[in-house]
Amino acid sequence: MDTTTDSKRLGAVKLSRVTFRATNRDSDPSALKTPTAAQSSRGTSNVKPPPSEGSLKPTDTKKPTQSISLSGLLAAQRMTMRLKNQVVLRRKARARTPNRKPITIINEQVPAGSANPPQRFPYSLAKELIQEFLTAKLRNVTYDPSTSADLTKNLCEDIKKMVRRVTPPRYKLICNMAIGSKNREDILMTSQCLWDSYSDNVTSCSFQNSTMFCVATVYAVYFE
Q: 14, 79, 118, 218 - which has most CB atoms within 10 Å?
């Protein structure tokens, strides 16, 4: 019993050794590596490996540098074009305007045989005063042929008194006025005088409402 048990134990030991060695010898190295390959294939199919840092760094650093350099180049080109255009425009402006000294008139030339008043008649100021006066007086007046003559005389006297306040001395004022009914016809009024064109002057204003029109003319004649 002891021998059999011992032989069985020895045989089992030998069998275990043989099987261990047989598996080590008969096993193909490629077969042993297949599980790892399968595991690696499973890992790659389920989870994508993150890209390496070395591959990301050149792409990440190159893109912003390229965009910054391109935008800076375009901005520099635009700036240079603007500066060139400004220089060209300045040169053209200088070429158009010659470097000449301005001509100043020290004394106004008085025509021969004309009077030389120290202060001439302010016709623009007189025109403004007459226009405001006619607007205030005739705004709400209705045309009446029976009263138009007296109205014309009174308005002429008032205009001469008003313009006399801004007229220099030695000027004689003559006021002429025409008032008429406002119909569909057009009216043209003209005047002709023989005077000194240097010292004498004239101003004229007109006003109209729904029923009437008025034209006032003031002549300023200088007497030495």
A: 218
The CA-atom distances, in angstroms, between 30 and each of 19, 20, 37, 114, 156 are 20, 18, 10, 131, 131
Q: For residues 129 and 159, give the distance between their C-alpha atoms in angstroms, rounded to a whole number.
A: 9
Check: pTM over 0.85? Answer yes or no. Answer: no
One-letter amino acid for residue 157 of the chain: E
Rounded CA-CA distance 128/218 in Å is 12
Residue with tokens 């007459």: 130
Q: What is the per-residue pLDDT across 69-95, written as a single tens digit (0 to 9) for each? A: 777 788 888 888 889 888 888 887 777
For the chain, give the number of residues: 224
Give, as one character, the DSSP assignment of residue 115.
-
CA pair distance 173, 160, nearest whole angstrom: 7
* Closest to 219 measured CA to CA, from 180, 163, 165, 151: 163
Report pLDDT digits (tens) over 112-169: 888 889 999 999 999 999 999 999 999 999 999 999 999 999 999 999 999 999 999 9
For residues 212 and 141, what is the distance between their CA atoms, to the nearest angstrom? 8
Query: 134 near 207, Cβ under 8 Å?
Result: yes
CA 205 to chain CA centroid, Å, is 40
